[in-house]
Please model this.
Amino acid sequence: MPSIKARYAAANAVKAFLADVAAHYLGGKTYDHKRPGWGKTVWEKTLQYFGDRCVYCNVPRDKFPSGVRMTMEHLIEENQFQCGLHHPANTVPACSECNQSRDKAVDGSRLTWEQHLKNIGNKKGYNRATIEKRRVAILTYFEGLDYPKLTTEESTYLQTTSRELYQDILKRCTLGTRGFLSLKGKEPVQLKLRTLSKISSATGRNHKKMKIE
Ligand SMILES: [Zn+2]
Model:
């Protein structure tokens, strides 16, 4: 069974692939919103466009509950299921709560951003017109920044390749670990918590000693 770390690595490989494909539509450049440059400027303008609010719950950043932060949300998710490109048109601000709560639909497929927007709006008690107004604002942004119009062949290719890439990484992690363990030929080793308490008490003593000196 692949570990959670292996799954993160596989998901990140898919993200890297989708960012590389997106670069083709961005003059060969990867969209980087964190480092100073055009990507950061674009992201700042995106935040401005949405009034520095979460696109889903509409709460402004300065009113976020404690522990909630602003994140970059991909409208078409950048994963093996939706294969959304890492392109400015596909990225909008969302609070970490709304971003993380975008779960799977009942049939196991991922929710579209429109379904997610509707679910959150209903939960918050917004009326239909308010939710629709927000949906149109997001769609106007998405279409205004020219998200690439992919052909069916291109979309299918992205999906197939993303899934293969994801599975390849998991397989390599599993095989690598299995190979390593066959070299060692050992059963899993338990961490001795007794050792850990020795370390912490030793550190405590050292601290005291240092203070005295
Ligand atoms: Zn939110």
